[in-house]
Design brief:
The complex is a heterodimer of chains A (about 325) and B (about 325). With about 325 residues, chain A is of the alpha/beta class. Helix content of chain A is about 35%, strand content about 20%. The longest helix of chain A has 15 residues. Chain B is built from 12 helices and 7 strands. The chains are: A alpha/beta (about 325), B alpha/beta (about 325). Chains A and B meet through helix 3, helix 4 and helix 5 of A and helix 5 and helix 6 of B.
């Protein structure tokens, strides 16, 4: 099977869906790049992360729209185009920019179907790059998925590998509900086996990345490969874990997590976000409510600190939970043995 | 391009009927709200009818509009069922949005009415998106964003206008300058001498018209639609208009001189002016308009009676229509 980076897997998904369905359009800043530039190079970037490369020459300016830096208008236009029958994939560039278009996401897109009495469909996909690790500072590094997971009406997708990224993006484009699609910047170059043909990965079905008997580990996005390293290292010592990647936080596959905790009695949650009101809290609360009697040890949350994301590489390394912290947390969960 | 001199008597009567329907709907709401039977808060469109109708008489169901918190007039002008609207405003199950949207969120996708919108400035970006769809399908239709002088101070409106120019889409921005942004005068809150000039600065055609003059609005809209369908991109029409009631029902309007509205009801009543004009140029028989008045009064009476008799949403409706599947 071909090895593709997550970037190329996402790119392939866009090419395939735009070929399959002419209602699919792509819009955002620099999605082709180069419009109005002096080089005359009309596809200068293909998105600043290269995810939309090759779409403009293939599908034309009517369906691949370079926009001004106007995030509210980008997201609002995606919403309106969706109400008018298209299936837009809007690129927000950095997830942090949700701050300048939040109204269009949570007051408009998320609420249309409900407040219009079920008479509208708004099949929008909003792609955004997230995550720390590249020294991009406090306004270009956040993982704000918990903020959007809290909003009824949105589906929240967070792939951790190339295979899932392609299948989840195709599902997102074909899905009739609005989808927020988070792409961790550090995962773009990471390769994995990706089938050539189009396929979907369903929402609300977690991926059991590793199976074990002692500890349930839930990890999101870049924390999944980090947790794999920790889990694999501990397996050599005889400590084995279920490693669960939810893949979507809305809907969240609670059943898989709860069934696992019922077997292991121990839960460690890894989240690159700050600790308050985040996905780690949400999953911990769900397990505490639904599987309290199965727990042998307190739930452990491994998160970033309650701080903005620092620029200095030395501080940013401290901010992001890494394999050593994850390994230590799993050992902590095993302390009673 | 369709201009008002080409309108047949029947079409003029239809336009009058639409304006009268809005007026009667709003005047009746003013009365009913005072009884306490209507939940929430409501923003009445009375006084601005010629704008909604002048614009929408140039449109078909295949054209799109995006409306505002003061949206009843736009809904009626775009063809929404008044009985369904009334039930919606009463919060009833058979309302156009099953009682889950209310006065500020009435929508009807089958009429190209993409929703009233309770966020000032929330609609224009959405209208640009629908205009992108129109352009992709060959510019046979247009997408209209209604907004007021208040919305003209929102950054989202500027973003939408610039993007519409850049992408050259058939979007038309209707700025209803009714003189007040909530309780604050436009003379205070708008820094420029007019709103149309702002649109021109973004690179689109813009004109100012008397919003109480149906014929003037209709003709300006005809020019904007012609430009849009000709691939010339967006336009703005600023209409000078007034509202006969407060920002919301219950607004004591302490910011308005005591006799302001009563004077405006003489000089700026689009229905009176329409009647005077068609009587003078003999384009419509006045008896036809009188018949319309009676018809509309009966229609609104029935809508109120039906709305009051309509059941509230069922408890299970709380959970429905959040997602299509989840």
């Amino acid at each position: 099977m071909p090895q593709l980076s997550m970037r190329d897997a996402l790119n392939q998904a866009l090419h395939q869906e735009m070929s399959r369905d002419e209602r699919v359009i792509v819009l955002g800043e620099d999605v082709s790049g180069g419009a109005g530039g002096t080089s005359g190079e009309r596809e200068a970037s293909g998105g600043i992360f290269g995810v939309t490369k090759g779409l403009l020459p293939k599908f034309g300016e009517g369906r691949v729209l370079d926009t001004p830096i106007s995030e509210s208008a980008i997201i609002g236009a995606a919403a309106g185009a969706a109400l008018a029958g298209l299936r837009p994939v809007a690129e927000l560039m950095f997830a942090d920019f949700v701050g300048v278009c939040f109204d269009q996401i949570y007051n408009q897109i998320a609420k249309f179907r409900y407040m219009f009495g079920g008479k509208s469909t708004c099949p929008v996909v909003i792609r955004m790059a997230m995550g720390a690790g590249m020294n991009m500072g406090p306004q270009h590094s956040q993982t704000i998925y918990s903020l959007l997971t809290a909003i009824p009406g949105l589906k929240i997708v967070i792939p951790s590998n190339a295979y899932d990224a392609k299948g989840l993006l195709i599902q997102a484009i074909r899905d009739d509900d609005p989808v927020i699609f988070f792409e961790h910047k550090a995962l773009y170059p990471r390769k994995g086996e990706v089938p050539e043909e189009a396929y979907t990965v369903p929402f609300g079905e977690a991926n059991m990345v590793r199976e074990g008997e002692h500890v349930t580990v839930v990890a999101i996005a870049r924390m999944v490969p980090f947790a794999e390293r920790a889990v694999d290292a501990l397996a050599k010592e005889g400590i084995t874990c279920d490693l669960i990647d939810p893949r979507t936080t809305s809907p969240l596959d609670e059943d898989t997590i709860i069934e696992s905790v019922e077997g292991t009695g121990r839960l460690v949650i890894i989240d690159e976000s700050p600790p308050r009101c985040g996905m780690a809290c949400d999953i911990a609360a769900t397990v505490a409510q639904k599987a309290f009697r199965s727990l042998k040890r307190p739930i452990i949350q491994v998160t970033a600190p309650h701080t903005p994301i620092p620029f200095a590489p030395s501080l940013e390394r401290l901010y992001v939970p890494g394999p050593p912290r994850i390994e230590a947390a799993i050992r902590e969960a095993m302390k009673d043995e | 391009m369709s201009d008002s001199t080409t309108l047949t008597g029947a079409r003029l009567v239809h336009a009058y009927r639409q304006m009268k329907l809005i007026r009667e709907f709003e005047e009746r709401l003013h009365v009913e709200i005072a009884t306490g039977d209507i939940p929430g808060f409501t923003h009445l469109y009375a006084g601005q009818e010629a704008v909604a109708v002048g614009v929408c008489e140039q449109l078909s169901d295949a054209d799109y509009i995006v409306s505002t918190h003061r949206g009843h007039g736009h809904c009626i002008a775009k063809g929404c069922d008044v009985s369904g609207m009334m039930k919606e405003i009463y919060g009833r199950q058979d309302g156009l949005c099953h009682g889950k949207g209310g006065s500020m969120h009435i929508a009807d996708m089958t009429k190209g009415m993409l929703g009233a919108n309770a966020i000032v400035g929330g609609g224009p970006p959405i209208a640009v998106g629908a205009a992108i769809a129109c352009k992709l399908r060959g510019n046979h239709n247009v997408s209209v964003a209604f907004g007021g002088d208040g919305s003209a101070n929102q950054g989202t409106v500027f973003e939408a206008m610039n993007m519409a120019v850049v992408l050259k889409v058939p979007a038309i921005f209707i700025l209803e300058n009714n003189g007040y942004s909530e309780h604050t005068g436009a003379s205070y809150a708008v820094g420029s001498k007019d709103l149309a000039g702002r649109s021109r600065a973004f690179g689109m055609a813009a004109e100012c018209v008397d919003g109480a003059d149906f014929h003037a609005v209709f003709d300006a809209m005809g020019r904007a639609v012609a430009r849009a369908k000709n691939g010339e991109g967006p336009s703005t029409i600023e209409t000078t208009i007034t509202r006969f009631y407060g920002h919301f029902e219950g607004d004591p309007q302490n910011y308005r001189a005591k006799d302001e509205v009563s004077k405006l009801r003489v000089t700026m009543d689009c229905l009176k002016r329409f009647r005077a004009r068609v009587e003078a140029d003999r384009s419509v028989a006045i008896a036809d308009l009188d018949r319309i008045d009676a018809e509309v009064a009966a229609l609104i009476e029935r809508a109120v009676v039906d709305a009051k008799a309509s059941p509230p949403p069922a408890p299970a409706d709380l959970y429905s229509d959040v997602y299509i599947n989840y």
